[in-house]
Amino acid sequence: MTLLELDDVTVRYGEAVAVDGVSLAVAPRERVALIGPNGAGKTSLLNAACGLIRPASGRVRIEADDVTGATPGSIVRRGVSQVPEGRHVFGTLPVEANLLLGAYGRVFRLEIVSSTLRYLRSRRDVRDQLERVYDLLPKLRELRERPAGRTSGGEQQMVAIGRALMASPRLLAIDELSLGLAPRLVQSLAEFLVRLNEEEGVAILLVDQSASLAFSLCERAYVLETGRVTLEGASRDLVGRPEVRSAYLGGGPDAPS
Ligand code: ATP
């Protein structure tokens, strides 16, 4: 059965159509990439999948259940968590508080943050999940007391991933993994995601400006241009296509494969 399915989804902002009838599917344990130029509608599509935007038409399904228009919190509880573009960590809160708040879905009010954290720390299941996330990303254990805003860009990306993992997702939807990060850090995050996928069975839906990263990390990919899917298929086939090489892989026959 398909884990996440978008069926003929359209997203509009007023009169403007950002996503125009896109269908996309991710199977359990699959790694799928979504690439395309700036403004193609990738973030809008991810946000529609995660309940952050209500599609103007089309359906979103998780394991065949129709979740179109469901709240972000209920999508998280059904196993789909997002790592948003730009990370959006709470800079003044310690790393651990950022992680704990991931266990709470997306819905909480900042003014009740300390009582929310007290409540979360009191829960055994949340503490156990926190330890699991620390085992997966040991660097976060070292940084647990540091304000998230005083960690590096790569560490903040780890916090954002760890926060999403607090909800025990079966699918992680990642918007721009590599943005603003040094290649070495991107490489180690990519290796972590492959391990997470292969060892923990977490499916990945990755949006990234680096098509070569997306193709090397994911076995299948969709190319989105001006709101429509123009190509889809196995990454190893797509990287061989001249139109993909010239538009996304920096040129001709020597472009990375
Ligand atoms: P990028 O790589 O630049 O993030 P993207 O492929 O993720 O681009 P989106 O951010 O989904 O594309 O944007 C798709 C289109 O929708 C663009 O034309 C963008 O300007 C427009 N858009 C996005 N968010 C909004 C919004 N909140 N209100 C109005 N228009 C928007």
How would you describe what is shown here?
This protein has helices at residues 42-49, 72-77, 95-102, 113-121, 124-136, 138-142, 153-165, 183-200, 211-217, 235-238, 242-248; strands at 4-13, 16-26, 31-35, 57-62, 65-66, 80-83, 171-175, 203-207, 220-225, 228-234. The chain has 257 residues and is of the alpha/beta class. The chain folds into 2 domains: 1-79 and 170-257, P-loop containing nucleotide triphosphate hydrolases (Rossmann fold); 88-168, no CATH class. It is globular and about 50 Å long. The structure holds adenosine-5'-triphosphate.
Secondary-structure blueprint of this entry?
Elements: E1 4-13, E2 16-26, E3 31-35, H1 42-49, E4 57-62, E5 65-66, H2 72-77, E6 80-83, H3 95-102, H4 113-121, H5 124-136, H6 138-142, H7 153-165, E7 171-175, H8 183-200, E8 203-207, H9 211-217, E9 220-225, E10 228-234, H10 235-238, H11 242-248
Parallel strand pairs: 3-8, 3-9, 6-7, 7-8
Antiparallel strand pairs: 1-2, 1-4, 4-5, 9-10
Helix pairs in contact: 3-7
Bound molecules: adenosine-5'-triphosphate (ATP).
Low-pLDDT residue intervals, each spanning 5 or more residues: none
Strand order of the largest sheet: 6-7-8-3-9-10
Total individual domains: 2
CATH class of the largest domain: Alpha Beta
* Major sheet characteristics: 6 strands, mixed
Into which percentage range does the β-strand content fall?
15-25%
CATH architecture field of the largest domain: 3-Layer(aba) Sandwich
Bound molecules: adenosine-5'-triphosphate
Radius of gyration over alpha carbons?
18 Å
